[in-house]
Amino acid sequence: MAPMVSVVDLHKRYGDHEVLKGVSLDVAAGEKVAIIGPSGAGKSTLLRCINYLERPQQGHVYLDGELVGERCRNGSFQPMSERELARIRAEIGMVFQRFNLFPHLTALENVAIGPYRVLGRPKAEAERLALALLEKVGLGAKAHAFPEKLSGGQQQRVAIARALAMRPKVMLFDEATSALDPELIGEVLQVMRQLAAEGMTMLIVTHEMQFAEDVADRVIFMDDGMIVEAGEPHIMFRAPLQERTRSFLRTVLER
Predict the structure, then answer these.
(1) Rounded to an integer, what distance in angstroms lies between the CA atom of residue 52 and that of residue 60?
(2) Torsion angle of the four alpha carbons 102, 108, 111, 114, in this order, in degrees rounded to the nearest 10
């Protein structure tokens, strides 16, 4: 069976600065992978390249066996059309550090807009789905509230519901709790735990080490644009093989 996500020799540069230096990674359907590492390691860039919000200079990304962002014709890789890219990108849910909700739309409208505008679902159907997802993340009572009336944690849960509304094959979480006050982090992590328990394929860039240990099937440590080490959480957090991993974990776990 093909991996749900396959990243092959990914390179990404900004000018002379190489952010990803040949990253390769397979993620099985239903697998939860936590990506940890210092700031500037390339973690967020990796997620953004997986759904082609950033276009890598080298390497390939596959979603459920299908190329993302490009087509192979006569042995040559050519960029996908924007329409093709939008279709496949709709199958990749992404939750950012910032919530990026439309401020002029209610929570319900923020969640329903994707199925309605992108997937072409009838408006009533899209709104029924949106309400069910808001209830799933504990915000059914806030369906008609505008983002400015919601806490940061509530806005992030709306953002998760919005991503789920597209029925994605994989969810990417880019430090989804890093912009939240400490007391609001738990409510977002609880929703992520629920998704993990339901079998959603997830790649999670996070600084929440206990969460990573509890939820992930595999933990990847990145530094300087490369995967330094990967393994099961109990090994990565208790007996990592690489000194760079040990040094990083000593620093973050002592805080």
Answers:
(1) 10
(2) -90
| Residues 218 and 231: beta-carbon distance below 8 Å | yes
Q: What's the pLDDT tens digit per position in 218-254?
A: 999 999 999 999 999 999 999 999 999 999 999 988 7
Residues 6+ apart with CB under 8 A from 189: 177, 208, 211
C-alpha angle with apex 68: 169 to 83, nearest 5 degrees? 95
Residue 4's H or E segment, with its range, is: none
Residue 117 neighbours by CB distance under 10 Å = 11
Calpha distance 180→139 (Å, rounded): 17
Distance of CA 77 to the CA centre of its chain: 25
Burial (Cβ within 10 Å: 0-12, 13-18, ≥19) of residue 29? middle
Q: Is 72 helix (H, G, I), strand (E, B) or coil?
A: strand
- Report the residue count for the chain: 255
Widest distance between CA atoms in the chain: 55
Distance CA 252, CA 209 (A): 8
pTM: 0.94
Q: Residue 136 and residue 88: Cα distance in Å, rounded?
A: 25
